[in-house]
Amino acid sequence: MAAVSLLARKYNSYYAQRPVLTTMITNSVLGGIADTVAQTLTAVRQRAVRKKGGPDKDDFLAIEIHDLDRRHVFSDHDLIPDSKKLPPPFDFERTTRFMSYGFLMSPLQHRWFKFLSATFPVSKAASWIPALKRVAFDQFLFAPAGLAAFFTFMTIAEGGGKRAVQRKFQDVYVPALKANFMVWPAVQLINFKLMPIQYQIPFVSSIGIAWTAYLSLTNSAEEA
Fold first, then answer.
1. CA distance readout (Å), 33 to 92, 101, 156, 188
2. Which positions of the chain have pLDDT values less than 70?
3. Helices (H) and strands (E) in the chain, counts
4. Measured between alpha carbons, how far is 180 from 89 in angstroms, rounded to an integer?
5. Which end of the chain has less neighbouring CB within 10 Å, N or C?
């Protein structure tokens, strides 16, 4: 608790002096953590799906993206009996891409959250309605655009062109947007109603470690 308190004080101090830069660095670090989690899960999943017979009841950590698995089935020569010999190497470039995306998107997120805070102020007398309006604006305007920006940025950063971007949108954009609507309205309602503005982006980024890991898995699975 003492460490958390010290970290919060340091963060508040840096945020008061340089709010945008502090948010950019925080988002970048959390994006790197998220992709590290995703790559670890990918290693577990690869071992499960590439062995003969596929995942079994003991592979409880194997994460499968079912729609993509049905379209991209491993051929016989990719299946091996001892799948534990297949830990994929850690992709530092991929982690750098995620950290860069978090860093570059933070100023836009910062402006967006300030806009929502100023447009729909939350008070003791009126807290639920403004918070719900913020969630609605965030989910129906910012979320679809943010996902589009994510997949476009990642595809271009991976060296893909216009066709690769189009293919990425055809394969994964709609499933990811549906998953977004299942997860983020509740998270953002808590965020907008309870969190001070300086903690809103770090809160989203912290909760979003699991979400970013999902996006990383989705992005890499489509590429595979």
1. 12, 13, 22, 21
2. 1, 4, 44-89, 217, 219-224
3. 9, 0
4. 29
5. N
